[in-house]
Design brief:
Blueprint lengths: L1 E2 L2 E2 L7 H19 L4 H8 L6 H4 L1 H24 L1 H12 L1 H8 L3 H30 L4 H30 L4 H19 L5 H9 L18 H11 L1 H22 L1 H6 L5 H29 L2 H20 L3 H29 L5 H30 L1 H22 L16
Antiparallel strand pairs: 1-2
Keywords: Cell membrane, Membrane, Transmembrane, Transmembrane helix, Transport
Membrane topology: Multi-pass membrane protein
GO molecular function, one term: transmembrane transporter activity
């Protein structure tokens, strides 16, 4: 973290803390992954829910809560520091698996997902912010690739493990005991081993140099919360294009989480095979980011994002027309690859444009819109599925994804340049 008492930027200079935060974010992903395979099946088989819109209330509750909490996490991280926000997130995670195990009604599941949304908003946002703080500008894409890879590989591994546990021991309680172990371990690591990183952002702010083309001259250090929100949401072309693309990405993920297991089950696939399909998509997504994150540091951000949105649209169309395990597996791999191209690159884009003085708030706003996609996806997919069927819902989301890619192609400019916004720290 420091040499001779001095703070330094760069992954190598902060390797111990950076690696610890990668491990902590894997536990964040695992906490989410405990639900991916089991909860849609629990809704149908235990609580006997029939309407897709009603079934997806847990995704809606999660998405709304996580989106709002992301915004709060960004503001609080700038105001009070990163570590207190991370600690609060893990304390809130502890009751979630217990509520899912003992839930006597669907309302308990929805309430558990409200807490899960708060946990994910506080913990995942903060680990993103802390890694950007430590990494500095030269390896921002690599930092985000490692962060998101750890989280989504953990989602995949946990989805696969819970599918196995559910097939062998039943839908409750065995699958959710993993989530309880993850939360307890992460709380201990955060309390005793994680260090505050806000001073690294302050160090980077002192090294600010203006972009040569003058594009960001209006994005000075002392923007208010409302100005940060407006720039990230609407006014700044790269930030706003990234925000809408992030929302559509998680709209896809909300669809995959809530309806894909049910679609796969309509052909009579056993729970174990549904678990494999549920794990394939986040596994490729997670592993792929180990390549796409650093690739965006070399090739730039915009074209990877545009290509990724197109690949996702094709994958969703393939899922809509397929009815066999093999074809769905190919589509899941494609969907994961497309998402890997986009996910860390969008976060790196936010880091490229936002000034270190308000970068945590910009990340919070971006993640507000991105994770709002869970809620939009739950509502849209549920309503369309109830009216016209599961496959129609997938087709609608595929079309939206293609349009989102066009918006990025038209509106976003390249944000990673050979002369970056901030002077390079030690890498």
């Amino acid at each position: 973290m420091s040499v001779a008492g001095e703070l330094r930027l760069g992954i190598r200079a902060n390797l111990a803390q950076f690696s610890l935060l990668v491990a902590v974010n894997a536990l964040v992903g695992g906490e989410l992954g405990q639900e991916r395979t089991v909860l849609p099946l629990l809704a149908e088989q235990t609580f006997h829910l029939t309407g897709y819109t009603f079934l997806l209330t847990y995704v809606l509750a999660f998405g709304i809560t996580k989106a709002a909490t992301n915004y709060v996490a960004g503001i609080f991280s700038d105001r009070y520091g990163r570590k207190p926000v991370l600690l609060a997130g893990w304390l809130i995670a502890l009751p979630v698996p217990l509520m899912l195990i003992w839930a006597p009604s669907w309302g308990w599941v929805v309430a558990a997902n409200v807490l899960l949304g708060i946990n994910q908003g506080l913990t995942w946002s903060t680990t993103v912010i802390m890694k950007i703080d430590l990494a500095g500008p030269a390896r921002r894409g690599l930092a985000m690739g490692l962060n998101e890879a750890a989280g989504y590989l953990a989602v995949a591994v946990t989805a696969l493990a819970t599918g196995y546990l559910a097939a062998r021991y039943g839908l409750r309680p065995a699958p959710f005991l993993l989530g309880l172990a993850y939360a307890a371990l992460a709380l201990g690591l955060t309390t005793f081993a994680v260090h505050e990183t806000r001073d690294h952002a302050r160090l980077e702010a002192t090294q600010h140099t203006a972009r040569a083309d003058g594009r960001h001259d209006h994005l000075h250090a002392d923007l208010t919360d409302s100005q940060v929100f407006a720039h990230t949401s609407l006014h700044e072309p790269a930030l706003s294009a990234a925000s809408q693309a992030g929302m559509v990405n998680n709209l896809n993920d909300g669809l995959a989480w809530g309806l894909f297991p049910i679609l796969f089950a309509t052909t009579g696939l056993p729970v174990s095979r549904i678990g494999i399909l549920a794990a394939l998509y986040p596994a490729v997504w997670g592993l792929g980011q180990l390549v796409t994150g650093p690739l965006s540091d070399r090739w730039g951000r915009k074209h990877l994002i545009t290509a990724g949105m197109g690949v996702q649209a094709v994958a969703l169309a393939l899922i809509a027309v397929a009815d066999t395990f093999a074809v769905w597996a190919v589509a899941a791999v494609l969907l994961g690859a497309g998402t890997a191209l986009v996910y860390p690159t969008l976060l790196a884009t936010i880091g490229d444009v936002a000034h270190p003085a308000w970068r945590a708030r910009a990340v919070g706003v971006y993640r507000l819109w991105r994770d709002g996609g869970f809620a939009v996806g739950a509502l849209l997919a549920g309503i369309v599925a109830d009216l016209w069927g599961l496959r129609a819902a997938v087709w609608v989301v595929a079309a939206i994804t293609a349009v989102s890619g066009l918006i990025v192609a038209i509106r976003m400019y390249e944000t990673h340049t050979s002369a970056p916004l901030w002077e390079k720290g030690t890498s």
